[in-house]
Amino acid sequence: MFIKILKYSLFILLLGLIFIPQYYVPFLQDKGQVLQAETLQGAYAQTKKPNFWPKKWLSGAFQKNYESYIRDRNAMTPFAVRLNTQIDYNLYHTIAHQNIIAGKDGEFYTQSDCEAYVGKDFQGIKSLSEKIRKLRFLIDHYAQKDIPFVVLIPAGKPGLIPERMPEYYQKYPRDSTNRKVLKHLLSKADIPYLDFDFLHTLKKDSPYALFGQASLHWSRFAYSTTADSLRSFIIREFNIDLPKLIRAPIDAEQNAFSDMDKELINGANFLKEPKPKLLPNPELTFESDSTYTPIRILSIGDSYYLSFYKNGIHDGLFNPKSKFLYYNHEVYPEATNNGRKVFAGDLDIISEIERSKVIIITVYESNLDRFGFNFIETVYDKVRERKK
Question: b vs e for 174-199, b when ≥16 Cβ sit within 10 Å of the residue's Cβ?
């Protein structure tokens, strides 16, 4: 009898260990450091506990939401997600992520970048033409105040390393793309822009990688090169003096990972992370004489310019008080007003433009369908209103 009871008890205990880990694993993790699960990377919205309503029960909505609620709080979820990612990658060379995809030879891409490269997100000439018309209006208006505009169009990984994209994108017919059409419209409207296409030549001639295998953005070496290109462009086109950019000699001891070099691996949530090749991280310094006064600019852009900012290039080339409007929403350097964070919509944008020497608009290839992030339209409407 005792043996029978013991067998049933062990069977019930085993079922509990398998099916209800959320009730005991948190306790074990709290007591043992080795059992603590690493938090999943990326944006994961926690499901709120659903309220019970007969109507939701009958429709099945309550059960579905409650299942999500339990799953999100299950202590085994981070391990299960990482294990699933690992199995998919090792067996099928796919990644269970809505935007990160595996390319050839250990290269990682984002689906949005690949689709922008082949033109699947092309929004049409009419929409881009209207934005360019308004930008040309602003350039002419602020030319009277000697405030030039420049558009930066960073070259992305699919364009620079197309040979390692998944076969599907390599064979996809490329016709009209937002980048190709935008460059044509900018040239036609005589709007200064920098497309960094010289990186195609640099890729062939340089021993250093322009992208990490698991990076979305340029390597630090590429950023140092493109920063010098931006500096030269502003000096040449607008006759504005800027500090000299000095890149320290690259040696083997500088090979390391920066946060950007592993961003796609981190986002994929592997159980055992692939090890991409190390990249050089050269130190950058900026040099100017004691009489030089840094110019103030206004920059509007996405994560490619944010990397200029975080790598010290923005503060090195320009006045540190120069504002950067990240997606025309967040303001860098960060500021508060009466304890509240200041956003782009809180600024007197006309005053910000008029106290700047150059306006820089940066839009990466997969963001070109949102060219300007509504900055152009906002300023256009305000200027037109003041002219009435």
Answer: eeebbbebbbebbeeeebebbbbeeb
